[in-house]
Amino acid sequence: MLKNKLNFLLPISFKKIFPYSKILSNKPIMYYYSLFFYNKFNFYLKYIADTIINNYKNKNIFIINFCVGCKKISKKINYRAKGRVNFFIKKHSIITIKFKYGKKN
Q1: What's the per-residue H, E or C state across 38-55?
Q2: Domains of the chain
Q3: Which residues are paired to 81 by β-bridges?
Q4: Sheet strands side by side (includes 27-28)
Q5: pLDDT tens string for the chain (105 positions)?
Q6: Nearest to 18 by CA among 6, 27, 10, 29
């Protein structure tokens, strides 16, 4: 069994993804297609599963660990009338996935 590790940077805040990290650990990769979380996170889960399957060309992949960490915060400026400025804070999170080929032993 080969063990691998991948990192993904997603434009979702850490607080929204963290509760799902224990649910998504110790599952086969095809489990990610049957989940229905809120729309944005569901889209990114399918994106992660697709990239892992396409990179390694194998559907017998077992996710060992699904770790979520806080990565970067970027500020976006929105100019308003009368010389005022609004700031939007965009938070990102990094997901580290450890997986292995084959089924769970």
Answers
A1: CHHHHHHHHHHHHHHHHH
A2: 3-99 (3.90.470.10)
A3: none
A4: 3-10, 85-101, 61-79, 27-28
A5: 556 888 888 888 888 888 888 888 888 888 888 877 666 788 888 888 888 888 888 888 888 888 998 887 888 888 999 989 988 888 889 999 998 876 555
A6: 10
